[in-house]
Design brief:
Elements (H helix, E strand, L loop, with lengths): L10 E2 L2 H8 L10 E5 L7 H5 L4 E6 L2 H10 L7 E3 L7 H4 L6 E5 L5 H10 L6 E7 H8 L9 H7 L2 E9 L4 E2 L6 E8 L9 H11 L7 H5 L23 H11 L6
Parallel strand pairs: 2-3, 2-5, 3-4, 5-6
Antiparallel strand pairs: 1-8, 6-9, 7-9
Helix pairs in contact: 8-10
Length: about 260
């Protein structure tokens, strides 16, 4: 089975690495429901199966679905053949919470993260393989040149940590970039003390021109530019923490152009 560029496939071939990733979910609440995204030929799947989990896998490539069905017949009832980005998260485990794990296709990895964030009430933890640069952006801290929209929106609800860096030689075909596995663990208080829709708007608008001061990037959002006159608005967005974005959202809400 050859990897398909259209699906962003790079198959893990290193058994030790595969097993280590598959056992990286902490599952602190003892929940056994796990969804694997993009299982491919099942290098993670077989090590998830041996943990006696309530495992489902979602795979968009029909050839991979056939491969998994032939090699893991007991899994057949739990194979979901579809694009994960289009999946109804509430139907995966009938509105029950579940964990996400996967060697994520790099071409949709950011969309997978945002999909999980949008269903944060259902996803207490996620472990995923990403292109190393993307992994670093997700967990980047304020003040970093790579701290951006995905950093803020993820860290508003999840604590992130780097687990492993994986060289290209662990895959077939080897990607042209290094890879990394990160773990995202939902915060105990994962809802924000602000209008979350407006929070996302403020964050995205602030980073539209990341080299500009906040007063310049946010002036199109408010009906009175005078509210952007304080010293805080001399900052650039990469200098602003998640909590400061929450506080900013609350301050700006009454001035937002309707």
């Amino acid at each position: 089975m050859k990897a398909k560029k259209s699906y962003g496939q790079h198959f893990l071939t290193n058994e030790q690495t595969s097993k280590k990733i598959a056992y990286s979910l902490l599952r602190k609440d003892g929940n056994t429901r796990v969804l694997e995204v993009g299982p491919g030929k099942g290098m993670l799947t077989k090590y998830l199966i041996e943990q006696n989990l309530d495992l489902k896998v979602v795979e968009a490539d029909n050839d991979m679905v056939v491969y998994l069905s032939n090699h893991y017949p007991a899994l057949i009832p739990n194979i979901i053949e579809m694009d994960f980005i289009k999946a109804n998260m509430h139907k995966v485990f009938d509105d029950e919470q579940f964990y996400i794990i996967g060697n994520f296709p790099y071409n949709i990895s950011s969309q997978i993260v945002f999909k999980a964030i949008n269903a944060k009430e259902l996803v207490p933890e996620m472990v995923g393989m990403f292109q190393k640069e993307m992994a670093e952006r997700i967990i980047a801290k304020p003040g970093s040149k790579i701290y951006g929209v995905i950093s803020v929106l993820t860290q508003a609800h999840y604590d992130g940590e780097m687990l492993y860096r994986i060289p290209p030689g662990a895959f077939n075909p080897p990607p042209k970039v290094d890879s990394a596995v990160i773990r995202l663990t939902r915060k105990e208080k994962y809802t924000l003390d602000c209008n979350e829709k407006l929070f996302r708007t403020v964050v995205k608008m602030a980073f539209n021109s990341r080299r500009k001061m906040m007063r310049n990037t946010l002036k199109a959002l408010v009906d009175d530019p005078a509210v952007l006159a304080g010293d805080f608005f001399n900052l650039r967005p990469e200098q602003v923490s998640v909590q400061q974005f929450v506080e900013l959202t609350n301050e700006l809400e009454k001035y937002v152009i309707k």
